[in-house]
Design goal:
391 residues, mainly alpha, four-stranded mixed beta sheet, 69% helix
């Protein structure tokens, strides 16, 4: 009986053209629009190599660590080249700065000094990198002085020299600790695709709502016949909900295939965890639809409108219509996003790339399971208490 009803429940869902559109077509259309809208944003905003100058006076010629550092940062053979350096006298570089040929220049007197003309992003990066080099150099000089002060016996002098030499060699090999710890696929436009996944998961609520409505005597003729039949209501409801869940997972699978194969979206290497979170998110969306069908009184169109309103509001707060919205809500109204299932899905996806540990990801998954469990239990209680004066 269970599988017989499951088969016909699937057939009924696939004959509903509106459901097929919202489940399969709309997420793909929206994903295509995202690609068209955002494909050139990041390529246009990538930092170009910054042209700077360095005054080659006597003080600069004594700064071995600084020379090694800037040589590394201006190495054209490396993908992460940051600077293009022009060497010369102070007068020559001042003229180049005045002609906007360089963003600024470094002058070594008693202390390093940055001379800039404007206060743009290139000038800011030049200043910050120089400050970090100064701090790193000071740190290692302090370490070397400490090593010298520790020596009390002339016999240990040779060992001290060896340690200091090894430290200097280490500095020269890696003069400044600039590392890119970001994932290769990390992109601020990925927030749009994450919210698209969340939206697709929550749109499964429409499927869940339709599955429940077809079994309610006050919502459809089929529901009236089911209510007076000898069939077990629990079996019929379970098979209908499973049919909705399977249909929703098929919609998600099509979305993933389309965005990966056609749109070339890079979700990273943790595919298993992404799929797992999407499945749990789909369960949350299905639970939302079941709860809406059981708790809300009104027509099927009214219930559909409620689910769409909840879904789109949740996606908006998690960053779909503006990538800064999630940050604003997390900062000023954190409780709102804690209760937002769309935010839990997107936040779980972010955590796979922003954090080395799985703690935040796990908490988001558990929160979604708790959200689903509460709604399903509440829906079960309401369904058991429903009675009709006449059918």
């Amino acid at each position: 009986m269970f599988f017989h009803n499951l088969k016909y429940a699937l057939k009924a869902l696939y004959k509903n053209k509106a459901l097929i559109f919202w489940t399969f077509a709309f997420p793909i259309i929206l994903g295509t629009l995202f690609k068209l809208a955002f494909q050139d944003i990041e390529s246009n905003e990538k930092l170009s190599i910054i042209e700077i100058g360095i005054v080659t006076n006597e003080t600069w010629n004594q700064q071995t660590l600084w020379q090694e550092t800037f040589l590394e940062l201006s190495n054209s053979e490396k993908d992460n080249q940051l600077f293009e350096i022009k060497y010369g006298t102070e007068q020559e570089l001042a003229q180049s700065l005045e002609n906007d040929e360089i963003s600024g220049y470094l002058l070594f007197e008693e202390t390093p000094k940055i001379i800039v003309k404007n206060s743009g992003i290139n000038e800011t990066i030049f200043k910050q990198v120089t400050e970090e080099i100064a701090e790193t150099t000071t740190l290692y000089e302090t370490i070397i002085q400490t090593e010298i002060q520790k020596q009390t016996n002339i016999e240990d002098f040779g060992e001290m020299i060896n340690r200091i030499t090894s430290k200097i060699e280490e500095i020269q090999k890696n003069p400044i600790n600039i590392k890119d710890n970001s994932s290769k696929n990390m992109s601020y436009t990925m927030i749009e695709y994450y919210t698209l996944i969340a939206m697709t998961c929550l749109y499964g609520g429409i499927l869940g709502m339709v599955a429940i409505n077809k079994n309610l005597a006050n919502m459809s003729a089929v529901g009236k016949r089911i209510s007076i039949s000898s069939s077990k209501k629990g079996t019929l409801l379970a098979s209908s909900i499973l049919a909705s869940f399977l249909t929703q997972l098929l919609g998600l699978a099509l979305l993933f295939l389309y965005t990966i194969v056609v749109l070339k979206v890079d979700y990273g290497s943790k595919t298993f965890y992404i799929i797992l979170l999407a499945i749990i998110g789909s369960l949350a969306g299905l639970s939302l639809g079941v709860a809406t069908a059981c708790l809300c009184k009104g027509s099927e169109n009214t219930k559909t409108g409620i689910i769409l309103a909840i879904t789109m509001t949740g996606c908006f707060l998690s960053g779909m219509m503006g990538i800064t919205m999630k940050y604003v809500i997390d900062t000023h109204i954190p409780l709102l996003n804690q209760l937002n299932p769309a935010n839990k899905i997107t936040d779980g996806l972010y955590s796979l790339y922003y954090y080395d540990t799985m703690n935040r990801y796990t908490m988001n998954c558990i929160s979604l399971l708790i959200f689903s469990g509460i709604l399903l239990i509440l829906s079960t209680i309401v369904l058991r208490r429903q009675k009709y004066d006449s059918i």
